[in-house]
Amino acid sequence: MICKTVKAGFECAFMTKNGCGFVNGKCQTISEQCEGCGKVFEFESEKYCKVYPEPSAKWMTGRCPTATHVKLEIKEAQKINPLKASKRASKKA
After folding, report:
1. Residue 44: burial class (beta carbons within 10 Å; 0-12, 13-18, 19+)
2. Where are the beta strands (DSSP E) in the chain?
3. pTM (2 d.p.)
4. How far is 55 from 74, CA to CA, in rounded Å?
5. In this structure, what are the phi and psi dihedrals at residue 54, rounded to the nearest 5 degrees?
6. Are 48 and 6 contacting, i.e. CB atoms less than 8 angstroms apart?
7. Closest by Cα among 39, 89, 91, 41 to 64
8. Which of 24, 34, 56, 87 has CB atoms 3.0–4.6 Å from 30's, for a disulfide?
9. What are the pLDDT digits (tens) for 9-51?
């Protein structure tokens, strides 16, 4: 439904016939960690998340699952000793 509280005119999954169904009755502004994310939009000089009504709660567990501005750290795979790899391969054949 279309939001009638904070983001008037925008599609909102929490809006019901009785008003906003979110816990506090309205969407919360973004937190500091959300700055630079592609899912943030500005509405009437306030910044809100397009995905979550309370973005600060998503950062409590570490990182927001939909953050576009945070890069995942990929650990390098463990290097394999070529001699041991060849021995393992000869045992299988």
Report:
1. exposed
2. 15-16, 19-20, 40-43, 46-49
3. 0.62
4. 25
5. -130, 85
6. yes
7. 39
8. 34
9. 777 777 778 777 777 777 888 888 888 888 888 888 888 888 8
